[in-house]
Amino acid sequence: MATQINTVAAELRRRIMSGAYSQGERLVELQLAAELGVSRTPIRLAFEELVKEGLLERLPTRGFRVKAFNLDDLSQALDVRSTLEGMAARLATERGPSPDVIETLRDCIEEGWRLLEDAAENGYRVETPRWSAMNARFHATLIRAAGNPLLAGILEQVSQIPLVGAVVLGLGLDETMPSSEYTFIHRAHQDHEDLVGAIERGEGARAESLMREHVRRSRDNKRRIYQARMEARGKGGK
What confidence tier does 225 reach under pLDDT thresholds 50, 70, 90? Predict the structure, then answer.
């Protein structure tokens, strides 16, 4: 079931990012289930995943629609996220993370390097679902370790803007991330390792700076890729 959900989510993500669906368009479970040859359950669960990514939103009555946004929304929200997550990294360092927090962060780092090694042996294509889950767990662990529920709540709200949340590191349209993203992903994961090192050494200001720069690089990468895809879409429509 998990593989089927990932496959459906990847196809819906591809359609949304390619412009096959208009912003604000309602998606119908029954129709999509027939198109993709699956039951309604994986469609519904894939919708939930895309809500977390900020690509879909629930309708006030029932159902889901494509969430409207633009590049300015994306950039501004990521600027806010960089500041807030930087604060979270500093607070987590100053509070002194528990052994469980450090263990989880280190597990994420080890898993990320394994995924990158596997990608290097398979055409430099990173497994998007596994990478996204690991990345989201890493960031969520840091935010919880900050011990500030208000900060966590604001970050959750900001992450509802399309492509802003940590679950969407790149903009891969398939179940594997394009090879062009490998260099960026590798650098981002080195940021993770540097950040944990700063936290373990009790360097709060350094941890804050590293996290802010980490999210800003994500902002620039997502903006570049999204803009290039929109331009390609425009040329294709001529």
Answer: confident
Determine if residue 147 is left, alpha or beta; phi over 0 gives left, psi from -120 to 50 gives alpha, anything else beta.
left
Instruction: Work out whether strand 26-27 and strand 126-127 pair parallel, antiparallel, or are unpaired.
Output: unpaired
Query: In angstroms, rounded to a whole number, what is the distance separating the alpha carbons of residues 236 and 238?
Result: 6
Token representation of residue 236 = 């294709």
Eight-class DSSP state of 176: E
How are beta strands 126-127 and 56-58 bridged, if at all?
unpaired
Question: Which of the residue ranges 38-52, 95-109, 156-170 would you say has the lowest mean pLDDT?
Answer: 156-170
Picking from 229, 118, 237, 231, the residue whose alpha carbon sits closest to that of residue 170 is 229
Looking at the chain, how many residues does it have? Answer: 238
211, burial (CB in 10 Å: exposed 0-12, middle 13-18, buried 19+): buried
Q: 48-85 burial string, b = 16+ CB within 10 Å, else e? A: ebbebbbbbbeeeeeebbbbebeeebbbebbebbbebb
Number of other CB atoms surrounding residue 26 within 10 Å: 11
**CA–CA dist 165, 230 (Å, integer):** 20
Residue type, 204: G
Q: How many CB atoms lie within 10 A of CB 147?
A: 13
